[in-house]
Amino acid sequence: MRHFTRTFLFIISSIIITSCSSTNKIATLKPEPDDASPIVYENSPSFINLPISIKLKDIENGTNSYLNGLIYEDNTIEDDDIEIKIWKLAPIRILNENASSSNKITTILPLKALIKYRIGTKKLGIEMYDIREFNLNGQITLSSNVALTNWRLKTKTEFKSLDWNESPTMTIFGKNMPITYIINPALKLFKTKIETKIDEAIEKAMDFKPNVISAIEKISQPFQMNEAYESWLRINPIEIYASDAKLKNDSFLLDMGLKCNMETLIGVKPETKFDASKIVLKAVTKIPNQITANIIAVSSYYDASKIMTKNFSGQEFGSGSKKIKVKDVNIWHKNGKMVVALDVLGSVNGTIYLAGLPKYNEEKKEIYFDNLDYVFDTKSKIMRTANWLAQGIILKKIQESCRYSIKPNLDEGKKSIMTYLNNYSPMTGVYVNGKTEDIQFEKIQLTNNAILAFLKINGAINISVNGLK
Question: Measured between alpha carbons, how far is 103 from 122 in angstroms, rounded to an integer?
């Protein structure tokens, strides 16, 4: 009996010693996440200045590209005894009609003309005609009022003068008559047609929608602000506002503004939300210079989990021989709180579940978890297996790493944004400039699959389009 007792005590002691020296296993009940649903959140629109500068030289080049060669032809000589063909002789010139005048341009069209003039009569069924042919050159001067209509610069052109470089004569009924004296009255129809042709050419040349849409499409492509944090800025256009075109010196100025949603996302490069068919141009009287950009930082739980896992790298929690390391972190949303699952190795193996409310530290620019505590079922298991892990000091140390700093994102993001606000050119003729003030935190909102941080940036962003190619 005494021998049995000694044997029993030895076995019990061995079990206790073995239990103290070996690793305990935590088997806990996982708090299941809420049903996943798409990220839906309210976003306050931002406004970006989009001034467009169109040089008269660009209008001139565009008009010349659309108006070439034969520009007028009248092949019927029987109705008025005149047959005319007119060609553009040299490039059209477009000038500011008057520096102090409002929105009027002068168009000078050099031309050459082939004119056939018929002299004669028809008597008793017998035609007796003499056809004379003349080659003339000169220039037409036109004046145009310019306005912005439906993405295009439109002109209303009026014929001002037709000046021939020479004034040849021919003998009619024994008298020398200037040919231009006969021809000019016959050009009334030509006058109307050339006005229309100039207007049509300028309208076609000055369709700046493709350039503006291309520029907006470029800036709507998400660009990476921070490689380490895998953060991206995405601009989602909504509407474009435009004021009246104004002629100043050698350029037309169009004040435009882009209404858009701006957001930052963390993880893989997001897809663009740009849809050219949904961009609407609206007329306004004034575009504000100072803007407010409302940005939403979208951090999916998966991506935030990866960053928190990095926070725990190389750290041990505990004291003496009782220590654990956090190998992996996963977080999700449950009943308005965040669940933080820590996979641990060491004196205790298993998964520890913590729950708390995300908060934002304005001074440190970081998201942290307030009132973080063990999930009840986990706590009971800890107390039965490794009571030391349930101590508040261990939880406090763990909580210090359960935080997600967005300060590097904000600082690097602001630095990255400034590289795009210093004469950045996403495409030929398009330049982005601007300035920003400090980024202000607004609030945090939880969804079933992401943490949303609402931020506000005051400043000014200008996207200038110089020239239409």
Answer: 52
Counting every residue written for the chain, the total comes to 469
According to DSSP, the residues that pair with 135 across neighbouring strands are 114
Distances, alpha carbon 97 to alpha carbons 47, 83, 200, 389, in Å:
34, 33, 20, 85
Full residue range of the structural domain in which residue 98 is found: 56-205
Question: Do 212 and 319 fall into the same domain?
Answer: yes
**Residues 250, 265: one domain?**
yes
For residue 17, the model assigns a pLDDT of 32
> pLDDT at position 281, please?
78
Tokens matching residue 3: 């021998």
Other Cβ atoms less than 10 A from the Cβ of 267: the count is 17
Q: How many domains does the chain have?
A: 2
Distance between CA atoms of residues 237 and 218, nearest Å: 11
Q: What are 54-104's pLDDT values in tens digits?
A: 788 888 888 898 888 898 888 888 877 888 888 999 999 998 877 555 678
| Angle value at C-alpha 291, between 289 and 296, nearest 5 degrees | 160
Residue 30 CA to residue 327 CA, distance in Å, equals 17
Residue whose tokens read 């306004």: 284
CATH of the domain at 176: 3.15.10
Cα–Cα distance, 449 to 37 (Å, whole number): 7
pLDDT at 170: 67
Tell me, yes or no, whether 41 and 174 share the same domain. Answer: no
Residue type, 323: K
Whether residue 218 sits in one domain with residue 133: no
Q: Is the domain of 213 the same as that of 190?
A: no
The SS3 assignment for 98 reads coil
**Which residue among 154, 185, 205 closes a domain?**
205
Amino acid identity, position 385: T
In a domain? residue 105 = yes
Q: Which residues contact 295 (CB under 8 A, 6 or more apart)?
A: 46, 233, 262, 263, 264, 439, 454, 455, 456, 457
